[in-house]
Design brief:
The complex is a heterodimer. By secondary structure, chain A is α/β, with parallel strands linked by helices. Chain A is built from 24 helices and 16 strands. In chain A, helix 3 runs parallel beside helix 7, helix 5 packs antiparallel against helix 10 and helix 8 packs across helix 10. Classes of the chains: A alpha/beta, B mainly alpha.
Chain lengths: ~625, ~300
């Protein structure tokens, strides 16, 4: 989506002007509010911006429909109230209690995440909703036998915030404090979105299985999303409690959750500027409906229905905010229009000039399968299969439909773990490892029916491949520590290098195009590029030429050949087009009903009687 | 322990009654899920509006809290009109909030359903206010048959009524799904929407019908609960909806007979829980059941696990 706008699309001067004007607005706004009523709305909109951006981490970036989000807001509020009021006579200073609250809430986020993570989509929504309901029931009922939460009456008269000896009591002071915090959350959101974490979450949102198979540790990343969202919600809850000087169960109920969801969806899931606008808009607009009471909530309901039907991507959607003059794809610096074929042939000329060391097949075994069997409830999709793959070899797997070829890929890449048998990669057993761990050992795959991260740019798709080769923590990302800059630069260089293997097909203006807008053949190329970006040694290509026209097929065939000869990759390939198989395979294995029925070079296999039977059927007797 | 044992028959009866109601609500969830794979979040509000419709009929047909005609006719009219109104409502929800999203990702549908739920809830809040509406059941049902005592079990007339009506409705639905042509079309659509289209089934009509039937049953549940607990307010739909969904999940979502069983099991569990926990935590028990089932056996207590296809 909008990953680079602050970095590349605005120059330094423009950025300074932008920051300065935001600063002036924020410094002046509380002072020009007509009365305390509007000042309160202004402050509340700051809180809603924080709240919506926190939800945006879980639901917007990672696509997890977390309905317990409002409970985290409540946990923050109540924890703050309990630690700085006369309820238990604990009066901790604000600067201590604030981080405590945020981290406690984050702990709850972790706990909820780890229990409900296995669930998907609406099941997860319902489970988290049930958690939120339990939380609310506890708030209402934990005033007996020991008064903890104060029941319906809540907790009130909280300690005033004391910052370095200054007591924060005036509404103006609160508005500064809250908008200052909001700015921190906004900055953090932008930074995390542009990082490996942002890309990892977005990949999960687009296609969880593909993300996992490209080396993203989805379990950990989803936990981090839950925890990150909870952290922000908890901190916001503390500020809210202090601002309201009280907490009630009703502050953290379902309608509040719907309001925050509306804000996020109105802005566009994952779009930070949009979410901020959505939060501000929905904090102010309903004030004009205030005298009509329930009309306000009704309007939220209608907003959801209408948005989902007409504009599910939100008001901001994919529009690039503040970005003018998109680069014209097919123009060079002189402003001349060029056709894409011209670009292509130019790339080809370069390719010919390439003089590199040529690789040839090695005799070291890189991958070995020993008696691997996969049972699907009685059906043996792969039956006692053993095979060896040598270094820098192209091994093709062929066989009729349902022969178990893709199952074999799923077994090696860790999507299934085999019922029995061993899978050895460079001597160590990888059977049963999670896909992201398999990628880390050096195996990457493509999918037969294309599983790209559709709304991510070409560049970002490939960058996801680098996820498992980088390790900046959220902290170094948020603080922009040197390790972050180093790894980002490394990722960028590596990924551009990989994409340039395909020449103009995937480079230049294509870097910023969404994967979904690519032609079918280019999507196949991008899948391969994404796999190469994981720094894999072994590439598993699942029908790389499927759906390509003859010209494109020749091109991809040569490309695969080049991958081995020039760059030294080992390739395991499933392919139906026998012309491709014949041209580039060192060896061919034929599968039928999960069993290996033939193995050898193409000519041997093609002459094998069993193979002919498998493809054409047995002659009648 | 003796105390609990003495209470047991009473709790079983209570559980069976409320379980029947949950089952009626669950059927609406499960039928829609079976065909559209969506969680009809607005179903709880349909139930709530069913309750209000019943109250409204009773209110219109009474003078000074006394019914103006035979009580049996009043109750029948309450149920029929409530079912009619909610059935229509269900069809409208489908038409305006879900049909435009037929091809959209499922999460969009869920969010749209959330919108419908909030909208309906506050619509009722607008026109009915936040106060509780009471069903003056005591004047509706003659005193001679209002309460029966069997051993130490107290059995009110409304309880018997609720049990009878829920089981009658479930039996009717079973006949419809199993024996009629429309039922066959429904089952075919649930199995494979596309194949059903190719066999000449008008899938759109089946979906409308599913919403009609499911919502009408939800509406009946609303009125029945109104008669049982003698009150309704704009906020009852939310909790009831969650309970109904829990029941549907318990029985394996998509499975109509599972939903019936799930409802009854949930009702029994809840009413047994009240013997051991303070009644304020009754709902906590229901939600814990929901969480545990979804996490441990998301395919339901009775359903079979279907391996996920990659």
């Amino acid at each position: 989506m909008n990953n680079h706008f602050a970095k590349t699309d605005l120059n330094k001067k423009q950025r300074l002007i932008l920051y300065a004007s935001i600063g002036v607005i924020l410094a002046g706004a509380p002072l020009i509010m007509p009365n305390n009523y509007w000042l309160r709305i202004y402050t509340m909109s700051g809180l809603y911006v924080m709240l919506a951006l926190g939800l945006n981490v879980v639901a917007g970036f990672a696509g997890i429909l977390d309905m317990a989000y409002i409970a985290f807001f409540g946990i923050g509020g109540y924890t703050f109230a309990l630690l700085s009021s006369s309820q238990f006579n604990i009066h901790l200073p604000f600067l201590l209690v604030f981080p405590i609250v945020a981290f406690i809430t984050m702990g709850f986020g972790f706990a909820l995440g780890s229990t409900s993570m296995r669930l998907k989509g609406d099941y997860l929504a319902i489970v988290t909703l049930a958690f939120a309901q339990i939380f609310k029931l506890m708030l209402l009922n934990l005033d007996r036998p020991v008064n903890i939460t104060g029941g319906v009456n809540g907790i009130y008269n909280l300690d005033p915030i004391n910052l370095f000896g200054f007591k924060l009591v005036s509404p103006v002071a609160y508005s500064y404090l809250i908008w200052f915090s909001a700015i921190i959350v906004i900055t953090g959101s932008f930074r995390i979105k542009r990082s490996r974490y942002g890309r990892g979450w977005q990949a999960i949102r687009e296609d969880e299985l593909a993300a996992e198979s490209m080396g993203v540790n989805t379990t950990w990343m989803k936990l981090m999303a839950f925890a990150g969202g909870a952290f922000i919600a908890g901190a916001t809850g503390a500020l809210f409690a202090s601002f309201q000087d009280s907490v009630f169960p009703n502050n953290f109920d379902f309608p509040q959750l719907v309001i925050v969801y509306c804000m996020m969806i109105l802005g566009g899931l994952g779009n930070i500027v949009g979410v901020i606008l959505g939060a501000v808009l929905l904090s102010i607009l309903p004030e004009f409906l205030r005298e009509y009471g329930a009309y306000r909530m009704m309007s939220y309901g209608l907003i959801l229905i209408v948005l989902m039907a007409l504009r599910p991507q939100g008001i901001m959607g994919e529009i690039r905010f503040l970005v003018k003059g998109r680069r014209r794809p097919d123009k060079d610096e002189s402003g001349l229009l060029r056709s894409s074929t011209e670009l292509y042939y130019e790339e080809k000329k370069q390719a010919i000039e390439e003089h590199r060391k040529r690789y040839s097949k090695g005799d070291r075994i890189i991958l070995e399968l020993k008696n691997v069997t996969q049972n699907f409830g009685g059906l043996k999709a792969v039956d006692n299969l053993s095979l060896k793959l040598f270094e820098r070899e192209v091994l093709s797997i062929i066989g009729p439909n349902g022969a178990g070829k893709t199952t074999l890929f799923n077994l090696i890449s860790g999507i299934y773990s085999p019922s029995s048998g061993y899978i050895l990669f460079e001597g160590s057993d990888i059977a049963g490892l999670r896909p992201n761990k398999v990628v880390k050992t050096g195996i990457a795959r493509t999918f037969q029916n294309l599983r790209l991260f559709s709304t991510m740019s070409v560049l970002d798709n490939a960058k996801v491949g680098q996820f498992c080769r980088t390790k900046s923590s959220p902290l170094s990302i948020l603080l922009h520590l040197p390790v972050y800059w180093k790894e980002e630069a490394q990722t960028e260089t590596r990924v551009k290098e990989v994409l340039s293997l395909f020449g103009a097909r995937l480079t230049g203006y294509r870097f910023d195009q969404q994967a979904i807008s690519l032609s079918f053949a280019n999507r196949r190329r991008l899948e391969i590029a994404r796999a190469i970006s994981t720094n894999a040694k072994l590439l598993m290509l699942d029908e790389p030429s499927a759906g390509m026209n003859p010209q494109e097929t020749i091109e991809i065939t040569n490309f695969i050949k080049r991958l081995r000869d020039t760059y030294g990759y080992t390739i395991l390939m499933i392919e139906h087009k026998l012309s491709v198989v014949r041209t580039i395979s060192d060896r061919v294995i034929v599968l039928d009903y999960g069993k290996k029925i033939a193995e050898g070079n193409y000519e041997e296999v093609a002459a094998n009687k069993q193979v002919i039977e498998a493809y054409l059927g047995r002659k009648g007797h | 322990m003796d105390v609990y044992l003495q209470q047991l028959p009473q709790q079983l009866v209570n559980g069976l009654t409320i379980g029947g109601v949950y089952a009626l609500i669950a059927i609406g969830y499960t039928m829609v899920y079976g065909i559209l794979f969506m969680l009809n979040f607005a179903h709880g509000e349909v139930y709530m509006i069913g309750g209000f419709a019943g109250w409204w009929v009773l209110h219109l047909l009474s003078k000074n809290s006394m019914p103006i005609m035979n009580a049996a006719i009043v109750i029948a009219l309450m149920l029929i009109i409530a079912m009619g109104i909610t059935g229509m409502l269900g069809m409208m929800i489908e038409r305006f909030a879900y049909r435009p999203l037929r091809k959209a990702p499922r999460l969009n549908l869920l969010l749209s359903a959330l919108g419908v739920s909030i909208f309906l809830q506050n619509l009722v809040l607008n026109y009915q206010g936040a106060e509780i509406r009471f069903f003056h059941v005591s004047s509706l049902i003659p005193e001679s048959i209002r309460v029966f005592h069997i051993g130490n079990v107290v059995l009110s007339f409304t309880r018997i009524l609720v049990i009878c009506v829920t089981f009658l409705l479930m039996a009717l639905l079973t006949v419809m799904v199993k024996k009629t042509k429309v039922g066959k079309a429904m089952r075919a659509t649930a199995q494979d929407t596309e194949a059903a289209t190719f066999m000449g089934i008008d899938v759109d009509r089946i979906i409308v019908l599913v919403f009609l039937v499911g919502s009408a049953l939800g509406g009946a549940a609303g009125t029945l609960v109104g008669l049982l607990f003698t009150q309704v307010d704009y906020y009852v739909g939310f909790q009831a909806g969650l309970k109904g969904f829990t029941a549907a999940v318990l029985g394996g979502i998509g499975n109509i007979f599972g939903a019936m069983m799930g409802g009854i099991i949930l009702g029994l569990l809840e009413s047994l829980a009240t013997t051991f926990f303070p009644s304020a935590y009754k709902d906590v028990v229901a939600f814990l059941v929901l969480i545990l089932v979804l996490i441990l056996r998301p395919w339901g207590l009775m359903g079979e696990k279907i391996p996920e296809k990659v």
